[in-house]
Amino acid sequence: MELNKNNNKPTVFSGVQPSGVLHLGNYLGALAQWVEMQNQFNCIFCVVDYHAITVKQEAKNLSENILNVVKAYLASGINPERSVIFQQSDITAHTELAWILNCVARMSDLNKMTQFKEKGLGKESVGVGLFDYPVLMAADILLYNTDAVPVGEDQVQHVELTRTLAKRFNNEYGNVFKIPEVTVRKQGARIMGLDDPTKKMSKSAASAANYISLLDRPEAAAKKITRAVTDSGSEIKYDAKKKPAIANLMTIYSLLSNTSIKELEAKYEDKGPAYAKASAGKYGDFKKDLAGVVVEFLNEFQIKYNSFSDKEVKQILKDGAEKVRPIAEATLKNVKNNLGIN
Ligand code: ATP
Ligand code: LTN
Fold it and tell me: Per-residue pLDDT averaged across 230-259, rounded?
């Protein structure tokens, strides 16, 4: 990774919380996008452990989950020789800059965040950290002169807030921050729940039937596909409004098998009604094939995932922190200078 060399490549920064096992939505919306970006950009991928503790975590689970997120990055195809992987809490500049940005952010900025409204608002004991977490995310991004932030659709609003805070700081205290752009995939930016195609696939969903975990036993994942909610009719046609469940399954199928939606529609053109008649239920052929695609993907993913030792992963995190620390510290120094805190 040539972070310190002037190779003129734009910088990409993104992160995942070590708050549980990742699911297919995380992979298709975020990780798969990161893998594609590795050749063109200087990529920095963070394990955002301070974000995870905005919700109570068991200490033992958290330390395991930090290593497991790195294993998921590696199994997805992130190459530590090309991209930097590091742990947020290893670089103290993140929390320092977050405090400074807290003094730039307004309550009204944070009150607009829809994710907080969905996750926290109205609950009895919501931590201040959960409300404030987009500010820490802004600090993560702004420390590295980031050009692009590849995320799923649910994070777009947080990157917009990052842009607002960066511009406000630059205006009020002098130019320090680069203004980052958000990048979301055309397909896969919002994978929906298998049990409810109106809500995004989420590891915090009430039922495990909602998601396919990247560590689900492949046979169990196949069953989840078979049992996934479908729409009325039997046609395999992409229509996100009228047939949201089938559109979601088609998106998963298309991305995992590298087949276009059009090709899928053509492949299953005559199969729906025929299969329905054969009493295996509507969409039977399609779901069976999709289950096969998912099983193949998970088998491959899990072999890679299990091939990395904890020791190896810890070394990757240590090396990563050493590479990014000078960049973060230089930005923080500029920020403090402009504030008059030297
Ligand atoms: P969850 O709500 O599922 O617990 P999260 O959004 O808190 O998850 P993270 O692990 O922090 O999950 O998210 C990592 C990345 O995965 C982010 O870029 C996020 O936008 C993306 N992502 C999460 N869920 C989906 C989804 N259903 N479809 C596409 N991308 C997603
Ligand atoms: N908030 C994000 C995780 C996250 C992140 C970031 C993503 C924290 N810092 C910086 C991109 C860039 C989430 O919950 N998915």
Answer: 95
